[in-house]
């Protein structure tokens, strides 16, 4: 205090304090102005923001591909951001509602209509016409996967498909070999056999998996979603969940309490069951998580032929508010066509969507080879159909389906209550 | 300061002595003349300037959003489209929503079970620490420490690890009691107890207040009681408890309000899996559901309505507590 010549001991002269206060206010203002920046151009260099969800491993791979991109396009800089799936969408939703979404981001089918309705997604077909983005060379009809009402809202990066992931050791010991076209009755007989001979539940509990119930409904000429809402009735779901509850009580499906206890591990890789319906590329995760060997089996059918399967895909989308649509289109083009990108990414986001990338990466490890073979078999056997478009709010309905099914299985609500709860929440989410 | 004033002043900070704030004219009092008035005005101006960061923060970050949320509570608002007036629909939807009722149940359970346990722990430790013993300063600091870190995200994550399947609590429970719960975290019936345990562990703040209260109890009361042959329990029940009842009231009030607002630890302990909070929504406390509706389902109108409903409920509970203090809180004036 004494060092301040103008002040008396213990107090500071008011004028200098006011100056200080004014100075700090100005500094605050400057900081605020500094925060306002974001993507922009500077001396011919353009910066675009790219966000995705996924693990650290995915982030490492993506950062390598971005280095390649920046080498080829030295005038474009890419700023990255990633979170786990749920956090990603919370952050994206907040940014998008504030008018500041990333220029380009990872997307999935369930969000196309949702964010199209909110005017967030850029129609990339202009950029295709301008020659900045090539939509040829995609496998298995994936080029139209991201189209909604004639607009190109997403470009697929890789395909995956629902599958029955099995614990091969347990299936071998039980003497079960699933064949294409096997029926639900055969499937359930296999589950019972595993329970009786292998001392563990047959299946992890499929009743909450929206994408599997979708396949089951499609085998019966329906679907989980229509473009406007739900494609099934309360009595359909009552039937599905009543059978599920019987399976839980009979020990055909894993004890739901144990399933929730082992999270974030999957019930299959934790050894609670012998098979689980999920995306085929999850086999990679289960192999690293579990102690056994995991393989892929066909989806059971109702009529011996139709599985209802389709290819799903992660996509890259651009935001409508981007100031650099051309650069964003060039970025997407590079990421889906460049062979070197495929070698870095592997099957991390599914089997590469374009032929060029598919040819560039041939897996050498057995798990990735199984996934490639599985999808090739789906293409060859001609069981693949088109995915039903998901209405806005589908993501919330999917989460509610999983949650309410789990509560029902845990005995927290009756089947009738669960069905009623799901339909009421979906109605709110899908906005009807 | 006697213990009589402590709770009242602290419970109602707005009505307490606010200090020589601007506008109260503390500086101008007892002076006259135009020079003095100008001087006073300038001092007021300086005062406001000093307060301006706080005033700006309050207006922009507290008052503004509160007024906005009161408006949103009567609208359908998804962040993207302009809010649409729907009247009381959010409130009628709320009462019809079983998940909302579930979140109320979880919260009430947490408040009614967790708060008394936490206060009992705080009072118990405060009684121990009130004795004359070497190193009490160290113990006080040690017992207070969890309160400083307990509400943090990292501790909730540690807690999750301690109480999960095959972790230390699970193993101890199995070997000591032969009960195989398989970890409290994954069990919808048990996880709420690990949440309550986490709350109890943070008894430091009420403990310190209890300690201050205990220090104020006159020794001669105990001495007189001892002469009359009163035992430990009798002394606690008939002297300590009535004498610290204002402090107890303050703690009950504060902790109850805190418990209603619990969010972070419940959200993290429950794990964030697709809009749920805990297995089968077992830790879906009120604010967690508010967050799910607001930020996951983008129903900001509904979430705002929920927030105002919480405010009403907490206000009501506070009013009931204030009314009830006539029956069990003994201020010194009344005692004499």
Outline of the structure:
The complex is a heterodimer of chains A (432) and B (336). By secondary structure, chain A is an alpha+beta fold.
List the helices and strands and how they pair.
The complex is a heterodimer of chains A (432) and B (336).
Chain A: H1 14-35, E1 41-42, E2 45-53, H2 56-72, E3 76-83, H3 85-97, E4 104-107, H4 112-117, H5 125-129, E5 147-148, E6 151-152, E7 155-167, H6 168-174, H7 184-198, E8 201-203, H8 210-219, H9 234-250, H10 256-262, E9 273-279, H11 282-289, E10 294-297, E11 311-318, H12 325-337, H13 339-345, E12 351-352, H14 355-360, H15 366-381, H16 394-409, H17 415-430
Parallel strand pairs in A: 2-3, 2-4, 8-9
Antiparallel strand pairs in A: 1-2, 4-11, 5-6, 7-9, 7-10, 7-11, 7-12
Chain B: H1 5-11, H2 34-72, E1 75-76, E2 84-85, H3 89-96, H4 98-129, H5 136-149, H6 153-162, H7 168-177, H8 191-201, H9 204-215, H10 219-227, H11 232-243, H12 245-260, H13 264-269, H14 286-296, H15 300-328, H16 332-335
Antiparallel strand pairs in B: 1-2
Helix pairs in contact in B: 1-12, 2-15, 3-15, 4-8, 4-9, 4-12, 5-9, 9-12, 12-15, 14-15
Question: Care to describe what's here?
Answer:
The complex is a heterodimer of chains A (432) and B (336). In chain A, 47% of the residues lie in helices and 15% in strands. The radius of gyration of chain B is 25 Å and the shape is globular. At the A-B interface, helix 1, helix 3, helix 10, helix 16 and helix 17 of A face helix 2 of B. Chain B: Belongs to the binding-protein-dependent transport system permease family.
What structural class is derived from the secondary structure elements of chain B? mainly alpha
The amount of helix of chain B comes to: 55-70%
Distance between the termini of chain B: 18 Å
Question: How many β strands of chain B by DSSP?
Answer: 2
The number of E-state strands of chain A comes to 12
Major interchain interface with per-chain residue totals: A-B, 37 and 35 residues
Low-confidence stretches of chain A: 1-12, 25-40
Biggest sheet overview of chain A: 10 strands, mixed
Indicate the mean pLDDT of chain A.
Answer: 86
The helix-and-strand class of chain A reads alpha+beta
Please trace the helix and strand order of chain B, writing H or E for each element. Answer: HHEEHHHHHHHHHHHHHH
Mean pLDDT level of chain B = 83
Q: Report the order of strands and helices of chain A.
A: HEEHEHEHHEEEHHEHHHEHEEHHEHHHH
- Assembly state here? heterodimer
**Helix tally of chain A?**
17
How large is the radius of gyration of chain B?
25 Å
């Amino acid at each position: 205090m004494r060092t301040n010549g103008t002040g008396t001991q213990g107090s500071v002269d008011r004028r200098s304090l006011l100056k200080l206060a004014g100075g700090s206010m100005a500094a605050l203002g400057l900081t605020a102005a500094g925060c306002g920046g974001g993507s922009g151009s500077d001396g011919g260099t353009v910066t675009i923001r790219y966000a995705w969800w996924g693990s650290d491993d995915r982030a490492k791979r993506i950062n390598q591909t971005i280095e390649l991109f920046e080498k080829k396009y030295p005038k474009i800089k890419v700023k990255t951001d990633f979170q786990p799936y749920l956090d990603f969408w919370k952050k994206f939703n907040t940014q998008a509602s504030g008018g500041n979404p990333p220029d380009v981001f990872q997307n999935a089918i369930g969000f196309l209509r949702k964010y199209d309705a909110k005017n967030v997604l850029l129609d990339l077909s202009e950029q295709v016409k301008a020659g900045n983005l090539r939509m040829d060379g995609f496998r298995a009809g994936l080029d139209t996967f991201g189209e909604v009402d004639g607009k190109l809202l997403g470009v697929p990066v890789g395909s995956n498909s629902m599958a029955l992931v099995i614990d091969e050791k347990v299936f071998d010991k039980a003497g079960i070999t699933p064949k294409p076209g096997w029926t639900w009755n055969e499937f359930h007989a296999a589950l019972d056999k595993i329970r009786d001979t292998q001392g563990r539940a047959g299946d992890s509990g499929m009743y909450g998996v929206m994408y599997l119930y979708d396949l089951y409904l499609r085998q019966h000429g329906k679907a989980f979603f229509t473009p406007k809402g739900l494609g099934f009735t309360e009595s359909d779901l009552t039937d599905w969940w009543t059978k599920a509850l019987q399976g839980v009580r009979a020990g055909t499906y894993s004890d739901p309490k144990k399933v929730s206890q082992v999270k974030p591990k999957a019930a299959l890789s934790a050894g609670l069951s012998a098979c689980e319906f999920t995306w085929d590329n999850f086999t990679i995760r289960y192999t690293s998580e579990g102690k056994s060997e995991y393989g892929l089996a066909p989806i059971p059918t109702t009529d011996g032929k139709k599985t209802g399967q389709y290819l799903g895909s992660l996509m890259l989308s651009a935001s409508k508010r981007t100031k650099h649509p051309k650069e964003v289109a060039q970025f997407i083009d590079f990421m889906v066509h460049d062979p070197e990108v495929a070698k870095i990414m592997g099957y991390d986001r599914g089997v590469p969507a374009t032929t060029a990338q598919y040819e560039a990466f041939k897996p050498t490890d057995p798990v990735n080879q199984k996934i490639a073979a599985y999808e090739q078999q789906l293409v060859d056997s001609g069981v693949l159909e088109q995915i039903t478009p998901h209405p806005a709010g589908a993501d919330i309905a999917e989460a509610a389906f999983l949650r309410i099914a789990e509560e029902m299985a845990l005995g927290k609500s009756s089947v009738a209550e669960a069905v009623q709860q799901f339909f009421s929440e979906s109605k709110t989410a899908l906005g009807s | 300061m006697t213990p009589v004033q402590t709770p009242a002043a602290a419970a109602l900070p707005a009505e307490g002595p606010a200090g020589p704030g601007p506008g109260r004219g503390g500086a101008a009092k007892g002076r006259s003349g135009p020079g003095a008035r100008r001087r006073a005005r300038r001092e007021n101006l300086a005062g406001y300037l000093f307060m301006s960061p706080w005033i700006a923060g309050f207006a922009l970050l507290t008052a503004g959003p509160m007024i906005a949320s009161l408006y949103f509570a009567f609208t359908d608002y998804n962040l993207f489209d302009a809010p649409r007036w729907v009247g009381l629909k959010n409130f009628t939807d709320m009462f019809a929503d079983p998940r909302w009722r579930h979140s109320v149940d979880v919260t009430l359970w947490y408040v009614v079970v967790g708060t008394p346990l936490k206060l009992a722990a705080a009072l118990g430790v405060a009684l121990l620490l009130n004795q004359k013993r070497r190193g009490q300063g160290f113990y006080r600091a040690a017992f207070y420490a969890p309160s400083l870190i307990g509400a943090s995200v990292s501790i909730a994550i540690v807690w999750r690890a301690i109480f999960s399947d095959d972790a230390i609590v699970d193993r101890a429970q199995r070997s000591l009691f032969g009960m195989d719960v398989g970890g409290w975290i994954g069990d919808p019936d048990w996880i709420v107890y690990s949440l309550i345990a986490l709350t109890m562990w943070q008894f430091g703040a009420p403990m310190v207040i209890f300690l201050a209260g205990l220090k104020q109890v006159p020794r001669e009361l105990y001495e007189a009681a001892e002469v009359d042959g009163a035992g430990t329990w009798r002394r606690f029940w008939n002297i300590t408890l009535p004498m610290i009842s204002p402090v107890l009231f303050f703690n009950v009030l504060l902790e109850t309000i805190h418990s209603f607002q619990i969010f972070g630890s419940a959200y993290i302990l429950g794990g964030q899996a697709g809009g749920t909070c805990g297995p089968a929504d077992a830790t879906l406390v009120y604010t967690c559901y508010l967050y799910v509706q607001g930020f996951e389902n983008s129903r900001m109108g509904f979430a705002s309505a929920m927030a105002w409903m919480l405010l009403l409920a907490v206000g009501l509970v506070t009013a009931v507590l204030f009314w009830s203090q006539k029956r069990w809180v003994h201020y010194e004036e009344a005692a004499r």
